[in-house]
Here is the input.
Amino acid sequence: MLNMHRVDSLDARILLALDQDPQGTVLSLSRQLGVARNTVHARLRRLLSDGSLGPFSQRVRMDALGLPLIAFISIAISQSASEEAVAALRVIPEIIEMHATTGDADLLAKVAARDPADLHRLTNRMLSIDGVMRTSTAMSLVEVMPLRTLPLLEAAAGDI
Here is the structure.
């Protein structure tokens, strides 16, 4: 994990302004927020360099890539081969997010697929990895609420 600092009120205000105008320049942001241009520039540079902001590619919708089916796959792995199994799973491009979890499974993977047949191919690929013992899949029917950070940024900015 990178050495992230805690987003403060000004950081949150800058990010909210960028959310409203993703192509906003440092100069336009500084004018909008009433903050020196160098301050905005330094804050953005720090947020990018310390890992507080994820890559721009995370904003791309999976259906725009021809992968409209989203599923969550619980994966049980052999503890003696966990590092190798995780490394092999990380190579699969359709696994778009993965977490170590508590409970019946060791990992929870969010995957994107073209259709159910493609999802079946993905689960078989996972099961072929040494150390992967079993999987359990839940397909998303519809996204009722996408990932959101806006309310948290508004709270951090002091807008709530």
In short: The domain at 9-58 is CATH 1.10.10.10 (Arc Repressor Mutant, subunit A). The chain is about 40% helix and 20% strand. The beta strands are 69-77, 95-100, 107-113, 132-139.
